[in-house]
Amino acid sequence: MPAYKRILLKLSGEVLAGGASFGINADRVQELAHETAEVALAGVQVGVVVGGGNIFRGVAAAAQKMDRVTADHMGMLATVINSLAFSDALEQIGVPTRVMSAIEMHQVAEPYIRRRAIRHLEKGRIVIFAAGTSNPYFSTDTAATLRALEIKADVIAKATRVDGVYDKDPLKFSDAVRFDEVSYLEVLSRGLGVMDASAVAMCRDNQLPILVFNLNTTGNIMRVSMGEPIGTVIR
Q1: Which of 111, 132, 172, 217 has the most other CB atoms within 10 Å of its CB?
Q2: Is 18 left (phi over 0), alpha (psi -120 to 50) or beta?
Q3: Which residues pair with 232 in a beta bridge?
């Protein structure tokens, strides 16, 4: 029995690249599509926000000589490319989806309208929110939080390369300690770097839990949806 009625799944753009440093790996996208489809078929309403870091990142070295607003808009367009790729993979296995973009582009995506997004979710469609918030200086973490609050999601499921929140980077420090549960305030005060501070603060102010888990373990999206004790809960 699913533990949540509606979740917001936050994926980084890098996960779509598979083992590569950039681009889209079709096999990896298909794997993620199958995992996400299983959750939707179990009766959970799923919204998705995908980053764009595998294609373009507004704060990366490549963007340093650019105007920040222009670079951020390029990053938003990268999220649209990823959203379309993920949508296509889901549709190929028979799962209805809708890509809703914060930047209007009628030929490729629906404009984001909150009530319409909720209606799609209620009809069992997976809704993929593209183009961030359409505003520069806001990350896809903040966009995911905003969309989760707007659609009244029960939780943000934040997929990462590690199995939760640690007191320091476990990929660099072997003595890093993992938290089973941690407060919003501790994440902010210790600068634990799970999500942008603005996103964590929004979750704190609205009591929206964040569940951080390892996406590289097959089946974890379903485990999160079923309420199994994996990863770290921030609340």
Answers
A1: 132
A2: left
A3: 212
Show the tokens assigned to 39. 């959750």
pTM of the full structure: 0.95
Please give the structure tokens belonging to residue 116: 């319409």
Domains defined for the chain, CATH in brackets: 6-234 (3.40.1160.10)
Among 97, 92, 115, 117, which Cα is nearest to 34's? 92
- The dihedral built from the CA positions of residue 197, 202, 206 and 210, taken in this order, carries a sign that is negative
Tell me which DSSP letter residue 209 carries: -
- Give 194's pLDDT tier (boundaries 50, 70, 90): confident
According to the model, what pLDDT value does residue 61 have? 67
Q: How do residues 126-150 score in pLDDT, each as one tens digit?
A: 999 999 999 999 999 999 999 999 9
Can you tell me whether residue 197 is helix, strand or coil? helix
